[in-house]
Amino acid sequence: MLNIFLVSIFILLFIYYSIFLIGILKGLNKEVPAGSEFHTEEFISVIIPFRNESSNILASLNSLENQTYPKEKYEVIYVNDSSDDDCVQKILNAEKSSNIKVISVPDDFSKNAHKKRAIRFGISNSKGKIILTTDADCVHHKNWLKQMTYCFDDETGFVSGPVEFIEEVSFFEKLQKLEFSGLVLTGAGLIGINKPTICNAANIAYKKAAYEMVQGFSDQLNLSSGDDELLMQKIWASKKFKVKFCWNKEAVVKTKGNDSIEKFYHQRKRWASKGLFYSNKLLIVKLILIFLFYISLPIQLILALFLSQIFLTSFFIFLILKSFIEYFILKHGINLIISEKILRYIPIAEIFQIPYIIIAGITGAFGNYNWKERKIKR
Q1: Parts of the chain belonging to CATH 3.90.550.10
Q2: DSSP 3-state assignment of 138?
Q3: CB count, 10 Å around CB of 14?
Q4: Rounded-to-integer distance, Cα 8 and Cα 14, Å
Q5: Are 87 and 52 in contact (CB under 8 A)?
Q6: What would the pLDDT profile of 306-355 be if each residue is shown by its tens digit?
Q7: Given this model, what pLDDT does residue 110 score?
Q8: At what angle do helices 261-272 and 171-192 cross, to 10 degrees?
Q9: Is 16 helix (H, G, I), strand (E, B) or coil?
Q10: What is the pTM of this model?
Q11: Which side of the chain, N or C, has fewer Cβ within a 10 Å radius?
């Protein structure tokens, strides 16, 4: 009787997760390439918060200097957030156009908000009607600004853009790229079914009017993360603006993966830390159910050792079906953010994904983490 009860619970969790994945697939099938209908040449402000980016900042500068968007129509604001390496001196000494400036956040400006304080300070010093934010360790296609702005019309307030890990070399980097691509495509699919949930701050754009309407990050200054998806959710929840995903190869922002498991862990822990602070409580419940499905997988293996082999059977059935659906989700990323050859690593990535989601989810929700040489406390 106990076995039947437990298997029934696991089946219900799997059904819920499967419905979630199928919804993402439906959303991806609805995506329309950006730039097919609308175009704008509003003045744009690109805000780039940075801290200790000595090895990356000049490549970032070069890619933004070479944008095809009219130079008189955009500005780039690099916002130094208490760097203690030589990156500030590097960018100050570099040759740059007059539309690119470097500013530093005052020490007493929103001390606990970290990255959000840099973005807020940058926006307060900007003059664009559209804000794009990206990271200093990213590089951009020359048409990045043009393609991202193509997505805007009178109804659109927020645009999430694609992000790609730079071509992988090591086995760990391949797994990271596959896993990260899954997150990007999940965000795109949820936007496609009008349930915007996740995005990546390395490539987002929003109307300053929408940002001001929801009072920016004013209710999130106690969180070090959330400058991307929490803002997106607030703008969507206002019912005043639509949210779009920019489905265009030229809109892809490229960045580096983590070079160690420790850095990967702290990054994912930081991303997971904001989940319990979503304003939509129903969304939190949904995420908890998904998390419970992942926890149920190792539990089934343990139960197979001590109770019945039926749990081993259910584990493999769920894992295979889950992998099958996620394969089709990842296929949507071919020719956008991944190559077809990397899909061969899906079986290994599926196993790797289970412990990382469980560990990062628990420690991110209740623990502290390291970010940019800072120890962040809950």
Answers
A1: 32-274
A2: strand
A3: 19
A4: 10
A5: yes
A6: 999 999 999 999 999 999 999 999 999 998 999 999 999 999 999 999 99
A7: 63
A8: 20
A9: helix
A10: 0.91
A11: N
User: Given a cut of 50, is residue 36 above it in pLDDT?
Assistant: no
**126 phi and psi, to 5 degrees?**
-105, 165
283 vs 230: CA distance, rounded Å: 12
Is the domain 32-274 a CATH 3.90.550.10 member? yes
Q: Minimum mean pLDDT among 110-119, 229-238, 316-325: which range?
A: 110-119
User: What percentage of the chain exceeds 70 in pLDDT?
Assistant: 90
Residue with tokens 């000049």, as numbered in its chain: 58
Structure tokens at 128: 């664009």
> What proportion of the chain, given as a percentage, has pLDDT over 90?
71
For residues 273 and 378, is the Cβ–Cβ distance under 8 A?
yes
Q: What is the mean pLDDT of residues 60-68?
A: 95
At residue 29, φ and ψ (nearest 5 deg) are -70, -15
- CB-CB contact of 138 with 254 (8 Å): yes
Q: Name, in order, each residue with C-beta under 8 angstroms of 295's C-beta and a sequence gap of 6 or more.
A: 358
Q: Among the ranges 27-31, 32-36, 217-221, which has the highest mean pLDDT value? A: 27-31
Helical (H) or strand (E) element with 139: strand 138-140
End-to-end CA distance of the chain: 42
Compute CA 364 distance to the chain's CA centroid, rounded to the nearest angstrom: 16
Q: Are 67 and 97 in contact (CB under 8 A)?
A: no
Q: Give the alpha-carbon dihedral of 95, 97, 101, 102, to 10 degrees.
A: -20
Q: How many residues does the chain have?
A: 378
Q: How far apart are CA 182 and CA 188, in angstroms?
A: 10
**How far apart are the C-alpha atoms of 220 and 310, rounded to whole Å?**
46
Structure tokens at 117: 């304080």
Place of tokens 């993966």: 257
Residues facing residue 156 across a β-bridge: 242
How many angstroms separate the CA atoms of 72 and 42, rounded? 10
Residue 70 sits at the vertex; the CA angle it makes with 101 and 256, to the nearest 5 degrees, is 60
